[in-house]
Amino acid sequence: MLQLILLLSLIAASAASCNRTCGKTTVQYPFGFSPSCHIQLSCNSNSVISFSGFPVQNFSTNYTFSVNISANCARPVSTASSFFSNNYALTHKNGLFLGNCDPSSTQQCLLPTLVVSQLSHQVQGCGKKEDNLTCIFNNTGNDYLTKDYVVNGSSCASLFTSILYEQYQAEQTVMVLGLVEIGWWMTGKCRCAANATCARVDSEVKDGYWCKCDEGFIGDGFADGDGCREICAADCERNHARERVRSIIGGIASGAGVLVCLILFCLVCCRYMKRTSSSANYRN
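RESULT FIELD:
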């Protein structure tokens, strides 16, 4: 029992010591800038946030974040390993353009190779790359790509750039060149906050889970994160503040009204006493 208490204390201390601030920006749980954070980011002197050397584009509420991958002919394909861990991986929306490939392993890309090859001509030192350029994309139907499929199964030497497929409407798909989307999750036993529900990630991710605040609450839902609070909490607090101001003003007004009544009463009494005194003097 004592060991369990100590373990829980260490977990809580680790979560509390995670630095989530870069300049004026505070990132969401489980991201942070210290070794104790579950997903570690970097913050430079200009408060630019990066992940494994790639600039972070944004964080999404659907348990994903995206990073920029500029075109680079000399970047080893092993660099893609940084997009995979026990609690994050490339989502099925990504396509990777790889260079210096074995001709027998090349496959037709969804994006015309000519577009990417034109981009390669603009990058210094690339030369003519379209002959051995190929792409890796999700052809399994799974929600995430795997490290083995990307790094070991391509027979390519370099990671040139990427493409992200975004579907904004039922029949409208936008392709963004030079951007990857990484999905994340927590692992192990669910540690969700009060008023939150634990949801397990797809079966392809072992022991992965997310926390989602129940209806009527907002927050990240995680016990070690920001938890959940009532949606009206902020508005209710403002309303309570306004009510307190009204009460104070009302109290002041009531007090002032009583004071005025007392003053009037005193004036009436004084006038009455003067009249009474004047009448007595006249009779005398």
